[in-house]
Write a structure and sequence with these properties.
- Helices cover 28% and strands 33% of the residues.
- By secondary structure, the protein is an alpha+beta fold.
- It folds into 3 domains: 102 residues, Chitinase A, domain 3, CATH 3.10.50; 45 residues, Beta Barrel (Thrombin, subunit H), CATH 2.40.10.330; 68 residues, GMP Synthetase, Chain A, domain 3 (2-Layer Sandwich), CATH 3.30.300.20.
- Strands 1, 2, 3, 4 and 9 form a 5-stranded antiparallel β-sheet that branches.
- It is globular, with a radius of gyration of 22 Å.
């Protein structure tokens, strides 16, 4: 790989190894030995991102442009380019009955998922619960240790990375020329329509849907019939 090719450019797909710290305390990593310190039960996963497309916090995403494959870096990121500043309006008072109706007994320090938001219970006063809807890392300065492992050129790896970004999981898919065909239940089709434009912007490929065939189920039924 030529020296110039080693430099990372916007829209390059790269694999990275990283560990993140907030106020000196580790909060995330995709390096097995570091991740175990954050969550002993978690499994480290390969991280492939498209640079400059918001797959990472803004500060780290911007930092990677112009850096070299194979090198390790350390970077400090201000809250505004990380998980944002803390916002006072996101500290809210919620009636206790909202929790009890969901059979939840709130206690100070408890972290919950409400309306797809991470919420921390600050205190309970009578029938009122003071909660914090700020991201737990909001307002904190971040430090990352990051290594750019390689540039990714394999089409399947690129597609997986973008699907993970858009769908939060990777459906079954085939690549046929300039098309990527997702296979799954009928309900997936509407999401494919919604995401197809963004997918093409990122990869330059059309995203289409094909309902998964039930061949495996048919084979299982035939096998069962033959045994009778």
């Amino acid at each position: 790989m030529e020296k110039e090719d080693k430099k990372v450019k916007k829209k390059d797909f790269i694999e990275i190894k990283f560990t993140g710290f907030a106020n000196g305390e580790m909060f995330d990593s995709n390096i097995e030995e570091d991740l175990k310190k954050v969550n002993p039960k978690a499994k480290a996963k390969e991280t492939i991102v498209m640079v400059g497309e918001g797959m990472l916090v803004k500060g780290l995403d911007e930092f990677l442009e112009g850096k070299e494959v194979g090198k390790e870096y350390e970077v400090t990121i201000k809250p505004r380019d990380g998980f944002g500043e803390r916002k006072g309006e996101l500290v809210r008072t919620i009636p206790l009955k909202v929790f009890t109706e969901k059979k939840v007994s709130p206690r100070p320090g408890m972290v919950l998922n409400m309306d797809n938001n991470i919420v921390k219970v600050i205190t309970i006063s009578g029938a009122r619960v003071i909660t914090d809807f700020n991201n737990p890392l909001a307002g904190k300065e971040l430090e990352y240790k990051v290594k750019i492992v390689r540039k990714v050129t394999d089409e399947k790896e690129k597609v997986k990375s973008v699907l993970e970004l858009l769908f939060k999981f990777v459906p079954d898919f085939d690549i046929k020329g300039n098309k990527v065909i997702l296979k799954g239940p009928k309900g997936l089709e509407q999401f494919v329509k919604i995401m197809s434009s963004k997918f093409k912007d990122l990869l330059g490929k059309d995203l289409e849907f094909e309902e998964a065939k039930k061949e495996e189920k048919v084979k299982e039924e035939k096998s069962s019939e033959e045994k009778k």
